């Protein structure tokens, strides 16, 4: 049985939740997308398995995932994080290649997916789709440059950078006096791999930030209490924690 094409209601919901589709014509989306999938993933569940190509592009509505490879000692080597409103597999599809890594949720996640060929057809039909991919790629490159800049930074700055990255997809202007800024409280081992420090250092650093009143840990989440201070820390301004 052939897969059923998505209804207009599904396309509208997709466009409301993912900016890539919001910029495109709804009529074009209806014509081009042959299959649309939506799924809720629990924490620590694989979306993609290593060396498996499912022929889909994934769009994150909510939550965070890590792209990693598992070495011979069964340790996860994290390559990058993806968060809300980002897409997984887009660059590989454009390059007609597939990066054989595993994608695992770091928090509960809501994920949309469409067939890779539908994605490529959108790029061919609408220049705006190509512009959206270029914007996505430029943001990923900016993140990579930030990682390189912080390689020689102290451990507190490195951990603060990860905290800021986890909230990057939120509104550009955040008034912490009016809004609670919540991010996932990742396992310390995951934060250690992402920041390039030891797990023990992450534990000490988070305790230090909390004692200074910069963050508040609440089970599965961390509340950012002093966003300006964390940003100054990552930007290299003199501080003491």
TrEMBL record:
Gene3D superfamilies associated with the record: Jelly Rolls, Winged helix-like DNA-binding domain superfamily/Winged helix DNA-binding domain
Entry-linked InterPro entries: cNMP-bd_dom, cNMP-bd_dom_sf, Env_Response_Regulators, HTH_CRP, RmlC-like_jellyroll, WH-like_DNA-bd_sf, WH_DNA-bd_sf
Source species, domain of life: Bacteria
UniProt domain Cyclic nucleotide-binding: residue ranges: 20-123
Record flagged with keyword Plastid: no
Keywords: DNA-binding, Transcription, Transcription regulation
Keyword DNA-binding applies: yes
CDD domains listed in its UniProt record: CAP_ED
HTH crp-type domain ranges (all copies): 153-228
Name of the protein this chain belongs to: Crp/Fnr family transcriptional regulator
Organism: Synechocystis salina LEGE 00031
């Amino acid at each position: 049985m052939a897969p059923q094409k998505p209804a207009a209601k599904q396309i509208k919901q997709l466009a409301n939740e993912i900016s890539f589709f919001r910029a495109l014509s709804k009529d074009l989306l209806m014509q081009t997308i042959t299959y649309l999938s939506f799924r809720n993933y629990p924490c620590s569940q694989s979306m993609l398995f290593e060396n498996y190509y499912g022929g889909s592009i994934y769009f994150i509505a909510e939550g965070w995932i890590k792209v990693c490879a598992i070495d011979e000692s069964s340790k996860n080597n994290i390559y990058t994080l993806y968060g809300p409103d980002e897409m997984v597999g887009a660059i590989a599809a454009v390059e007609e290649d597939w990066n054989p890594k595993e994608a695992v949720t770091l928090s509960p996640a809501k994920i949309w997916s469409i067939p890779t060929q539908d994605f490529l057809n959108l790029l061919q039909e609408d220049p705006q789709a190509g512009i959206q991919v270029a914007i996505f790629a430029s943001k990923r490159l900016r993140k990579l440059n930030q990682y390189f800049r912080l390689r020689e930074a102290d451990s507190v700055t490195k951990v603060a950078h990860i905290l800021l990255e986890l909230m990057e997809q939120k509104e550009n202007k955040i008034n912490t006096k009016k809004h609670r800024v919540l991010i996932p409280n990742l396992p310390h081992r995951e934060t250690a791999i992402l920041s390039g420090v030891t797990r023990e250092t992450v534990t000490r650093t988070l305790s230090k930030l909390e004692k200074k009143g910069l963050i508040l840990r609440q089970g599965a989440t961390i509340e950012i209490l002093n966003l300006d201070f964390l940003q100054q820390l990552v930007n290299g301004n003199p501080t003491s924690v």
